[in-house]
């Protein structure tokens, strides 16, 4: 068991956990939920809002993670009841309870529940996913503190990959005759292309995976080595391979219809790609066993070797390992929060309205579907590339990560302007820039949080800042895009608006907001520039020398 208790095995099982969660699959089962429960569109939208907030409010998971992984608890007699596995267990209970209730209501196993009850369980199911996400991201940062951007990117892209995997599972047909493929047979028995059974799968799949491997997710305090980056890059390469593979299949599906054998082969290849990180972990363990161990007394967090002027000491005391209340009392917290409202909010609004924009501009259904799928892929690349590039700039150019956040938000503003322009193919170019830059925010924000406020309470603080996403989404999707669209559609047939004027003003406003986010991120960069040089970079130099 000791051989399995290391950061490499933890990384592999964290990827598997992230890929198994189905938090953003509401569109698959929403039609059957609407029909079986007798909801109108307004009620369905209300239920979906609770799902969105459940998937973004991870503050409780942060508090629990901090509580069960603190040194005080781990060193006490109750240490066997502490550790990241506790957070995974609580998340699994919520996920199972929420989706099981939804499945029971949709399948008719229980009488039609009142809307408030459905809203509660619709909140509870994706809220469990925030516990999985918190464990995987924060454990990754703690295990690879000097390559935090890369590991957060890997975890975030894995969290997005699960949606593609679930779609591949859900839309595959004709599994008959494959007695050797147990996973495929299990899905065939469970779903049969049935949204009701798909909800049951969401109740079972993430919990089976997480409960099976939860004791392998651990905080490894071993020293970083120069080869860590090499193995993390290998994990990133596999992620890029999966993204490229899904991009290729998305494009091909617009031109040809895959026969059943091709769908089955596609699924098997996907499984092999998901298993392949285990080979990287084994190779890393073999290399680590051959390498001379770094002295256990070496501590990369020894700040005594840093400059010790009174002003520097005050800076260290004020910025390192803040709790949530202390962080919220700092100006840097609110700068980061406002930057995320601008970046995440405008990004989510673009994603949520991509289909509607395509219809307004006369795109064909296949083109719209391709746009949505490609936007998801650009999101993947942004999550992975943002973390990797921020590590590269920090290590090689010694630039603080908020600078990259500012650059990506400015680029996102350009993407919004391109969408507002209305020229032929504008959605393809604009969504590429917005998708890449939006995805990068999800990698940059957690690692910036850990560096500015410390790792000890990172789980709580970054989950609090994540609330910026639904807040921004509501402001820009409902109060700006929705309001302006409805105003432009007055007097048109069926209140549907056609033409670039439907969204032009909205995206010009969001472009301005993105540039505002860029300015806020630049302020954060200059405010933390000295801290990065005094603490982050010197700690990095000391640990990797």
TrEMBL record:
The keyword Membrane is assigned to this record: yes
Record key words, sorted: Membrane, Transmembrane, Transmembrane helix
UniProt topology in membrane: Multi-pass membrane protein
Classification via CDD domains: MFS_Mch1p_like (cd17354)
PROSITE patterns: MFS
Subcellular location: Membrane
Domain of life: Eukaryota
Principal location: membrane
Transmembrane segments: 12-29, 49-69, 81-103, 115-141, 162-186, 198-219, 231-252, 264-286, 331-351, 371-390, 460-485, 505-526
Any Pfam family matching the protein: Nodulin-like
Positions of the Major facilitator superfamily (MFS) profile domain: 331-545
UniProt name for this protein: Protein NUCLEAR FUSION DEFECTIVE 4-like isoform X1
Gene behind the chain: LOC107418494
């Amino acid at each position: 068991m000791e051989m399995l208790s290391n950061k490499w095995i933890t990384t592999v099982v964290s990827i598997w956990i992230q890929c198994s969660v189905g938090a953003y699959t509401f569109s698959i089962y929403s039609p059957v939920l609407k029909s079986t429960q007798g909801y109108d569109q307004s009620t369905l939208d209300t239920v979906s809002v609770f799902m969105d907030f459940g998937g973004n409010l991870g503050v409780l998971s942060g508090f629990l993670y901090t509580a069960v992984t603190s040194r005080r608890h781990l060193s006490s007699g109750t240490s066997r009841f502490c550790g990241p596995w506790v957070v995974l267990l609580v998340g699994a209970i919520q996920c199972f309870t929420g989706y099981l209730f939804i499945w029971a209501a949709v399948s008719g196993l229980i009488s039609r529940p009142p809307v408030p009850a459905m809203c509660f369980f619709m909140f509870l199911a994706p809220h469990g996913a925030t516990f999985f996400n918190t464990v995987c991201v924060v454990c990754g940062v703690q295990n690879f503190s000097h390559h935090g951007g890369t590991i957060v990117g890997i975890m975030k892209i894995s969290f997005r990959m699960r949606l593609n995997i679930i779609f591949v599972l859900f839309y595959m047909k004709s599994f008959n005759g494959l007695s050797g493929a147990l996973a495929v047979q299990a899905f065939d028995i469970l779903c049969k292309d049935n949204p009701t059974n798909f909800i049951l799968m969401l109740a079972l799949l993430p919990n089976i995976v997480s409960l099976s491997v939860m004791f392998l997710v651990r905080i490894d305090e071993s020293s970083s080595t120069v080869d860590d980056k090499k193995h993390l890059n290998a994990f990133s390469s596999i992620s890029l391979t999966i993204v490229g593979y899904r991009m290729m299949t998305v494009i091909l599906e617009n031109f040809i219809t895959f026969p059943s054998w091709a769908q089955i082969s596609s699924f098997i290849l996907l499984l092999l790609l998901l298993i392949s990180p285990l080979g990287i972990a084994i190779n890393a363990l073999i290399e680590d066993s051959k390498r001379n161990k770094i002295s256990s007394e070496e501590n990369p967090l020894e700040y005594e070797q840093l400059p010790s002027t009174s002003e520097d000491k005050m800076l260290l005391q004020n910025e390192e390992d803040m709790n949530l209340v202390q962080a919220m009392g700092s100006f840097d917290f609110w700068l980061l929060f406002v930057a995320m409202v601008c970046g995440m909010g405008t990004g989510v609004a673009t994603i949520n309205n991509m289909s509607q924009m395509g219809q307004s501009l006369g795109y064909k259904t296949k083109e719209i579907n391709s746009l949505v799928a490609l936007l998801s892929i650009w999101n993947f690349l942004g999550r992975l590339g943002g973390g990797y590039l921020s590590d590269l700039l920090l290590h090689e150019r010694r630039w603080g990560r908020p600078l990259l956040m500012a650059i990506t938000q400015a680029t996102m503003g350009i993407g919004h302007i391109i969408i507002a322009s209305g020229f032929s193919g504008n959605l393809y170019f604009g969504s590429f820039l917005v998708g890449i830059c939006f995805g990068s925010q999800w990698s940059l924000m957690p690692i910036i949080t850990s560096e500015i406020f410390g790792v000890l309470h990172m789980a709580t603080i970054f989950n609090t800042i994540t609330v910026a996403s639904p807040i921004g989404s509501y402001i820009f999707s409902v109060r700006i895009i929705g309001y302006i669209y409805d105003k432009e559609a007055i007097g048109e047939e069926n209140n549907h608006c056609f033409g670039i004027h439907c969204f032009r003003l909205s995206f010009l406003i969001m472009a301005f907001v993105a540039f505002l986010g860029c300015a806020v991120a630049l302020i954060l960069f200059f405010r933390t520039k000295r801290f990065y040089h005094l603490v982050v970079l010197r700690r990095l130099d000391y640990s990797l020398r």
